[in-house]
Specification:
The protein is globular and about 45 Å long. Helix 1 packs across helix 5 and helix 2 packs across helix 5. By secondary structure, it is α/β, with parallel strands linked by helices. The protein has a single domain, classed as Response regulator (Rossmann fold, 3-Layer(aba) Sandwich), CATH 3.40.50.2300. The protein contains five helices and four strands, in the order E-H-E-H-H-E-H-E-H.
Length: about 140
């Protein structure tokens, strides 16, 4: 099964989701992430993922391509903008929407911003865990 996480800029939420799925599902799934645009990787996302032992530095911030869509069995949009602007998917490609708040829009002190990144990180981990249970362990892979 090939899963694609799609976000606006492929800098935070989709990067974290890719990192979690890659770490938690191993070779049971091919995983990639992309954005409607590529905005680069967010340093706070890298930091909070490091805190849970997942290094996402090697992942690239990329813009969605037709090839990515053609190989995806499941596309998961992780923000409203990506959901609204998701390209037309090939026949047979499923799509899920996870409405996850953008931690890059958090305000406050550095620590308050990191707290918001941790909240989103933990939400994404829970969603990925459920995805693995439903899609991979549940026998749909």
């Amino acid at each position: 099964m090939n899963i694609l996480f799609l976000c606006t800029g492929n800098s935070c939420r989709s990067q974290m989701a890719e990192g979690f799925l890659r770490a938690m599902a191993g070779d049971r799934v091919e995983v990639q992430s992309a954005g409607i645009e590529a905005h680069g990787k967010n340093p706070q996302a890298i930091k909070v993922m490091d805190e849970v032992g997942i290094d996402i530095r090697g992942q690239e911030s990329t813009a969605i391509t037709e090839e990515m869509l053609n190989v995806a069995d499941l596309v998961i949009t992780v923000c409203g903008h990506a959901d609204e602007h998701c390209p037309i998917l090939p026949s047979g490609t499923r799509c899920l929407h996870w409405p996850i708040a953008d931690p890059a829009k958090a305000t406050g002190t550095d620590e308050e911003v990191l707290v918001q990144f941790r909240v989103i990180r933990d939400e994404i981990r829970a969603r990925v865990d459920f995805l693995i249970d439903e899609e991979l362990i549940g026998g749909k892979a």
